[in-house]
Amino acid sequence: MSTLPLDRPPVAAPLRRWAEGWWAVVHLTLHLVVLALHLTALVLLVVGTALVPVLGVGVLLLWPTRRLLALCARLERYRLAAVLDVHVPAPPRCAATGPAWRRLALDTRSWRTAGHLAVLVTLGTVGGTVVLALTSTGLAALLAPSASAGLGHGGEYGWPFGIPGTLRAPALAVVLAGALLLLAAPLLARALVAVEVLTALALLGPGRGEREAELRRRVDVLTSTRERTVDSVEAERRRIERDLHDGPQQRLVSLAMQLGMAKRALERGGPDAASEHLEAARSAASAAISDMRHVARGIHPPVLTDRGLDAALSALAAASPVAVVDVEVHFPPSERPSSTAEAIAYFCVSEALTNTAKHARASRVVVQLWREGDAADGRADLLRLRVSDDGVGGAAPADGTVASGGSGLRGLGDRLAAVDGWLHVVSPRGGPTVLEAGVPWGAGGGR
Amino acid sequence: MGRGRWPLMRVVLAEDSVLLREGLVQLLRLEDVDVVAAVEDAEALLRAADEHVPDLVLTDVRMPPTFSDEGLRAAIAVRSRHPGTAVVVLSQYVEERYAAELLGGSTRGVGYLLKDRVGDVEEFVSTLRRVAAGGTAVDPEVVSQLLSRASRDDPLERLTPRELEVLQLMAEGRSNAAVAARLVVTDKAVEKHVSNIFAKLGLPPDTEDHRRVLAVLRHLEAAARPGTRP
């Protein structure tokens, strides 16, 4: 649900409340337009329910009624959003299963919609009529003196509606009365609509049980992603330790060993005998430095922080053994996702490129990044990425899940799940492989 | 160190990194050590040990297939199968627990060293020879881990700095003469320190180097674990 205009702080001048009240007037007037539809649905529901005991004939009637009610609910949610900017979330699908009559009886959405329609039909119709009458009378009264001035009227008016023989009033009083009515109509409409919004939130949105079920589902998801996050952090630390052990540590031991042998050679045979060992030591030192750089970059590439994804991914692409790696970033450098989102996207691409180089026998990889959705229009604001190659495929099961894929992909899937992102890999045997991911633009904060 | 002063030592080497394996083979051959087999995993090590029954097995801890402690377990297996074969375990890290497992039972011909020690070729090779001859070598790192964990009211507190130095060198498996040479003091002075140490720690005096090491290590280990202090 987004902002409720009726709930805006009272600091807004009464004039603004009044002006906004006209939207409520429009809304209530529209009630009269959809009244026929609502009444039809309600009558069908009552008749259908009444006929259920009669050999179940009612069920035949209730089945289409249920669809009609769902349609009404959708229309109402749309109308509330369009006219009043009140967003009521749609309730989840009915979880009941079994024969049609059971689903019919247990689908609380229909019953709750019917309740809301009943409120609309009474409150809305009465309110709509009253507000419409007030508005039109007000307008008529306000305009009547000037309209009739040209007709040479005597300056006194039948009241109300100029009916002869009723109360007579002077022109100024009529204009004042009209202005008062126009002042009051939007405020009354606001009050009536406020009541309607409350019932809409209660009856058109998810019910209490459904909200609880939704929360429970969310807790389950958070619990499992939290566990997997801890696991993947541990796996990551093990990987770093292994990288250090297999790379720099070995090189440094080798360096120490070569220097030791050089020293022994100097003691025994002089400079010539030592030079071979010194050269080996020198190359072990360079290799250790390069390994160290590799490990550090695997933890976090500095250029990613300094210059963003485009620069970091270009460096990755240049280092890839695949012949052609195109990187396309479809958002301006001035727009940067959170540092967490950037890091996750970077490691997704890094893992994808590593896998491609190792297994895909591809000659070309295209890396695309773009921004999808926008927080302003209510859709998820995502950093999207796609890595596609022309290789031999076979990297993931047909259903696109990554649970049984390589441990690298699984770790990434876990990291994405932890920030409510997603990862999808399509890689049929014979290729090509397409990896897609969505990372919430502001994931985890940072920047 | 002159060549030919030692009987030719036959060694089986196990190390999974090609770089280090080849480096070690080169190093040992330059020092007149006969490397009869150089293998890359624990299983091959056991086979080679059975086949050659070498004087010494030199092995890495982390090796395929699980890259955990298969080298250590292979070393323990070699010791029980071939009591005459000494083992030296090399590792990127040293752990007291591993040391305890390796030294459990007999301490004859056992060594546990950080890989860094290969940098000092002369010292490294002489340590190997010492272990092959039935000595014990525990990396100073293990000893200092144990010393640093010993609690405040420990008898170790009563040792003088010099006595601590002697204790450390002793734990590494050095003889009195070697300790004396290292500290540039007389043998007599070392003997005095050693008997002081044993007295202060409440250990029975022992003249055999490797049993001395074991006694000191057991003491340190117990001192490092609160509640089981001797």
Total strand segments of chain B: 6
Count of alpha and pi helical runs of chain A: 11
Shape of chain A: elongated
Distance between the termini of chain A: 28 Å
Query: What is the level 1 CATH name of the largest domain in chain B?
Result: Alpha Beta
Q: End-to-end span of chain B in angstroms?
A: 42 Å
Q: Quickly give the CATH architecture of the largest domain in chain B.
A: 3-Layer(aba) Sandwich
> Radius of gyration of chain B over alpha carbons?
18 Å
Descriptive report:
The complex is a heterodimer of chains A (about 450) and B (about 230). With about 450 residues, chain A is of the alpha+beta class. Chain A folds into three domains: about 5-205, no CATH class; about 220-300; about 300-440, Heat Shock Protein 90. Chain A has helices spanning about 15-50, 55-85, 100-105, 110-150, 170-205, 210-270, 270-300, 300-305, 310-320, 340-360, 405-420; strands at about 155-160, 165-170, 325-330, 365-370, 380-390, 420-425, 435-440. In chain A, the strands form two sheets. A five-stranded mixed beta sheet of chain A has the order 3-4-5-7-6, with helices on one face. A two-stranded antiparallel ribbon of chain A has the order 1-2. In chain A, strand 1 and strand 2 (about 165-170) form a beta hairpin. In chain A, helix 4 packs antiparallel against helix 5 (about 170-205). Chain A starts with 13 loop residues before the first helix and ends in a 7-residue tail after the last strand. In chain A, about 30% of the residues are buried. Chain B is an alpha/beta fold. Chain B has two domains: about 10-140, Response regulator (Rossmann fold); about 140-225, Winged helix-like DNA-binding domain superfamily/Winged helix DNA-binding domain (Arc Repressor Mutant, subunit A), CATH 1.10.10.10. Chain B has ten helices and six strands. In chain B, strands 2-1-3-4-5-6 form a six-stranded parallel beta sheet, sandwiched between helices. In chain B, helix 5 (about 120-130) links the parallel strand 5 (about 110-115) and strand 6. The mean pLDDT of chain B is about 85. The interface between A and B is medium-sized, with 18 and 20 residues.
